Amino acid sequence: MADAGPILRDVAQALNECGLEAILIGNAAAALQGAPVSTLDFDFMFRNNAPNLKKLKRLAAILGGRLFVPYYPASQLYRLINDGRGLQIDFMSVLHGIRSFESLRSRAIPMFIGGHPILVADLGDIIRSKRALGRAQDRAILEILEKTRDEKERK
Fold it and tell me: What is the pTM of this model?
């Protein structure tokens, strides 16, 4: 994830600047925990409420992006895009296999990216979500994620 590092640093800084509490999920979160996976975008879970939607709009402005609200109305997915930087960030309030934002946050791992704090979903939650989604691309990396989780637990 070396190439995505500077972008993720900017995202972490912007999240903190606008005060939006969000948890990094998906392949980027798995890569930060040592899984040999890659991704072209970042995915976050957040609470979908009026104050956070204002913060999400501010985040888009800070990152110089456009916000598509909602990208998929049924899924409550909000997509922030900055084509010039190759930046795509998805924010969702519903995550397959996860009960609530609070339950995900209770197991999230605090990390620092470029000196900025960010919450990263636990590998067990990432695995649970990918299994619940059941898409081919998610099933394809389950074994890799499970092996990474098992190696971390043995340490």
Answer: 0.92
